[in-house]
């Protein structure tokens, strides 16, 4: 299988100008993902896990290293040097990101948020409407909430909506930052079900999890992170 993502010697430092300090979030991290793989990153809070995902997604700019991604549109591209226009395109069409927090447009309903995500992929309104209802129902989001503003949702409802919006696009690369953090057991199973479905469809995934049981028989490899570096890696044979 072809390599879809390769991170080489990635380092990220945050400057605390008011304190005159530097915080080294990640140091000399390297990782590669082949098409269709699911790689998990574990570790304590503050160990640098989320920083890696945000560097891939372009939320953070890095000081050192490269992030090579094999794009359908641009070919092999270093995300660390990609233009804002290139990153916007990739986020819309190729790279999905699920975090614990929902960033939603004001005065946009849950239904509209998901439909917009599908239309961005080039689908028509009728198809988008059907797929939106399917995925909102899959996550058992109360129908009364579909045409409500997410600002009124509970934390768990917002997270389910966030996951639905990212997964419905069926991205080539999906970044998962604690996607099950505040979900109950049944909702976690719904997320797992969709992850398994996306894996069958060939989506490549890099995910951060504290819930090791959730990762069981999902991940091809797991990297444990401590103090900004990978302490060890494990490869699994999934049954």
From TrEMBL:
Cellular component annotations (GO), alphabetically ordered: plasma membrane
Any Pfam family the entry gives: ABC_tran
Domain ABC transporter: 5-239
Domain of life, source organism: Bacteria
KW Nucleotide-binding (keyword) present: yes
UniProt keyword terms in alphabetical order: ATP-binding, Nucleotide-binding
GO molecular function: ATP binding; ATP hydrolysis activity; transmembrane transporter activity
SMART domains with a match to the protein in the record: AAA (SM00382)
Keyword ATP-binding annotated: yes
Protein name in the entry: Phosphonate ABC transporter ATP-binding protein
Source organism per UniProt: Mesobacillus campisalis
């Amino acid at each position: 299988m072809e390599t879809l993502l390769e991170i080489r010697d990635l380092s990220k430092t945050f400057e605390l100008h008011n304190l005159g300090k530097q915080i080294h979030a990640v140091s000399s991290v390297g990782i590669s993902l082949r098409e269709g793989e699911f790689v998990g990153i574990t570790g304590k809070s503050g160990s640098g896990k989320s920083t890696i995902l945000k560097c891939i997604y372009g939320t953070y700019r890095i000081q050192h290293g490269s992030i090579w991604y094999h794009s359908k549109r641009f070919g092999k591209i270093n995300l660390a040097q990609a233009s804002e226009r290139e990153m916007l395109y990739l986020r819309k069409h190729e790279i999905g990101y699920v975090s614990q927090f929902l960033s939603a447009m004001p005065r946009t309903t849950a239904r509209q948020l998901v439909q917009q995500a599908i239309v961005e992929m080039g689908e028509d309104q009728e198809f988008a409407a059907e797929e939106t209802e399917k995925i909102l129902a899959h996550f058992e989001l109360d129908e009364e909430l579909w045409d409500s503003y997410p600002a009124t949702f509970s934390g768990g409802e917002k997270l389910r909506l966030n996951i639905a919006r990212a997964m419905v696009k069926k991205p080539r690369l999906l970044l998962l930052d604690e996607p099950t953090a505040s979900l109950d057991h049944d909702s976690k199973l719904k997320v797992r079900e969709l992850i398994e479905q996306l894996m069958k469809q060939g989506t490549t995934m890099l995910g951060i999890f504290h819930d090791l049981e959730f990762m069981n028989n999902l991940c091809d490899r797991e990297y444990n992170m401590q103090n900004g570096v990978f302490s060890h890696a494990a490869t699994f044979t999934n049954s």
